Amino acid sequence: MQRFCDQPLGDTPTIVVLGAAKLGNYVVLQPLLRGLREKYRGADLTYVGSRRTSELEIGNPWINRSLPLAEQAEDATAQLRSLRGADLVINADGHSPHTLSWVSALAPRYVVGAAPIPAGDHPLQQLALDPHWARADLVERYSGWIHSNSIRELHCRVAWVNTEFERVELPQAAPPAGLPPVLIAVNGERPAKLWPLQHWLTLLEHLQTDWGLAPQAIGLIGGPPPATAERAGDQLELQLLTHLPLRDLRGQLTLPELVGALQHSQLCLAVDSGPLHLAAAAGCPTLAIFGTDHGGVGASPRDLWAPRSRNVWVSQSTASCSLCLEQQYAPASCELPEHSCMNQVTPESLRSALQNHLGERSMAA
């Protein structure tokens, strides 16, 4: 096993990409998967993904097969041995310890990312293992090798793939008729990225006033609601539905149907989450609610993760806090008494942003 440095792989290489059990992580890998197919047209390309994203993986035109094994972690190692000796393995989920075992089981000729071998001397080999992709000096430190710190570009660069880094395409299906024109996504993996309930209620009240929306013209999207709302995001969804008679679409659509719904929606409001990336890819006018200051520092790594699409506008907080960045976004929740970075993204500022981008219009269903 050697570090990949764009060595020739032949006309029909076997390539394995190791993904994560998160929707957003899968979406941002689409330029990489497409770029691999463009570069290695005769490749046999396997994506090791997740049950959570399998509906999108099945319809992916860039891969030959998908294996939804991420939830099994190290228990999936034996199943991967059938791909042992692959020409190239790209570990796109180096944060998960089990992928090291996966790489060992696959024993490829070449590897990108976390693997049980030395890091390598080339700048792109070092970039692949650099834990500070979210820092503002990343482009300067790898000057000449990357043009931005967009996660979509970085995943491609470390694999020596050149493509349209910000073009993300996803399979879609026709959604059911009569869906609301406005869709919102309020939940997320890290409570630190959540926007307060009262802010949501105020902004949705503004939408009803400004654009003549009834509550039923706003749909709540996300994963299936759990039996008990134990996580902060699940509780937020429940409280929102208690206060407003929104259309509850959580878990009612397949992922391709959700992409189709977003393509036909007039607006999506979303915190940093998987549905945000679906909306961006679908071309839906989208307001992304990030608790980050003018420099992109805050609850989420804005410049790393935020979609760079013309149809996406990213909020800005008047508060500046670098604690999450300093701790590499490891703590799930804000550790300060006042969650200022998200609290100080005001509903009024988002109302102004919507008026600036969308103007006067009616969105009534």
Q: Give the CATH H-level superfamily of the largest domain.
A: Glycogen Phosphorylase B
Strand order of the largest sheet: 1-6-5-2-3-4
Q: Portion of residues in helices?
A: 25-40%
Count of separate structural domains = 2
Topology as H/E string? EEHHEHEHEHEHHHEHEHEHEHEHEHHH
Task: State the assembly state of the protein chains.
Answer: single chain
Q: With helices defined by DSSP (H or I, 4 residues minimum), what is the helix count?
A: 16
Judging from the principal axes of the Cα atoms, what is the shape?
Answer: globular
Main beta sheet: strand number and arrangement?
A: 6 strands, parallel
Structural class: alpha/beta
Per CATH, the architecture of the largest domain is 3-Layer(aba) Sandwich
Residues in β-strands, percent: 5-15%
Task: Count every beta strand, where a strand is a DSSP E run of 2 or more residues.
Answer: 12
Mean pLDDT across all residues, rounded?
95
CATH class of the largest domain: Alpha Beta
Query: Poorly predicted ranges (pLDDT <50, ≥5 residues)?
Result: none
Spatial separation of the terminal alpha carbons: 57 Å
Radius of gyration: 21 Å
CATH topology of the largest domain: Rossmann fold
Give a short summary of the structure:
By secondary structure, this protein is of the alpha/beta class. It contains 16 helices and 12 strands.
